[in-house]
Amino acid sequence: MTKTPRIPIPPEVRKYVYQRDNYQCRSCGKTATETSLNIDHIIPLAKGGSNDISNLQTLCQTCNQRKKHDLDPRFKRHFT
């Protein structure tokens, strides 16, 4: 499996993903007013995931750190 190169996520893409996900963690449901939110690759780049917007989701910092680079069934694509 080939690792996808890491590129910075443009600010307008970040904004779109946060808005699409209602500024809410896709795992625990915490909002931006409750915690720090991150943009996460659903399928990690190290596992061949893409930088495509359909592979991005909003996670809080805690859930993102818990997920690390693993494929976890709780974190799945909700968009195509």
TrEMBL record:
InterPro entries: HNH_5, HNH_nuc, NA-targeting_endonuclease
Positions of the HNH nuclease domain: 12-65
GO molecular function: endonuclease activity
SMART domains found in the cross-reference section: HNHc (SM00507)
The keyword Hydrolase is annotated on this UniProt entry: yes
Keyword Coiled coil applies: no
Sorted UniProt keywords: Endonuclease, Hydrolase, Nuclease
Pfam families on file: HNH_5
PANTHER family per record: OS07G0170200 PROTEIN, SLL1193 PROTEIN
UniProt name for this protein: HNH endonuclease
Native source organism of the sequence: Gloeothece verrucosa (strain PCC 7822) (Cyanothece sp. (strain PCC 7822))
